[in-house]
Amino acid sequence: MEQSTRRLSDLARILLVVAVLITAVVTHFLDTYNVFRVEDLTATEMSETLQWLDRFYRSPEGLQRPAGIVTDGRVDFESISNWLFRNYLQARAHGATPEEARESVAKQIRDSPEWQEKHKQ
Q1: d(CA 56, CA 82)
Q2: What is the pLDDT of residues 18-47, one digit of tens each?
Q3: What is the pLDDT of residue 86?
Q4: Is 75:22 a contact under the CB 8 Å cutoff?
Q5: Which has the closest alpha carbon to 37: 80, 95, 82, 102?
Q6: What is the rounded radius of gyration, in angstroms, for the C-alpha atoms of the chain?
Q7: How many other C-beta atoms lie within 10 A of the C-beta of residue 74?
Q8: How far apart are CA 45 and CA 7, in angstroms?
Q9: How far apart are CA 98 and CA 66, in angstroms?
Q10: CA triplet 30, 15, 52: central angle to 5 degrees?
């Protein structure tokens, strides 16, 4: 049982790395073809933001998901697509710093039904 859990965890980490690589390639493509241009945006920044998103999903002030952006042993690509590609990149494209863009994403997550449900008072 422990070994299969470890395998799922390893697989989730591999999928997370794949997601980061895809993010880097897409970001490079968008920058190269001037579809999206943010001078300071790097693969390192996107990787750090993906890690931030995973931590925020796990955190008590976030979505309180014990496995972060991994759900049932699978990376939640829909969340990555929504929060990173749609919201984070849009904020950066409009001149927000990485910290401001992350806070914008955090605010939008706090406005989500899932967050509202988990933080009822």
Answers
A1: 15
A2: 777 676 666 666 555 555 555 556 778 888
A3: 86
A4: no
A5: 95
A6: 15
A7: 13
A8: 28
A9: 25
A10: 70
H runs (alpha helix) in 33-118: 43-58, 77-79, 89-93, 98-110, 113-118
Which range (30-39, 77-86, 100-109) has the least confidence? 30-39
Q: Are 26 and 77 in contact (CB under 8 A)?
A: no
Residue 70 β-bridge partners = 75
Q: Is the dihedral of CA 62, 55, 79, 83 positive or negative?
A: positive
- Residue that the structure tokens 């829909």 belong to: 78
Q: Please name the amino acid found at residue 109.
A: I
- What integer pLDDT is reported at residue 28 of this predicted model? 60
Question: What is the structure's pLDDT at 90?
Answer: 86
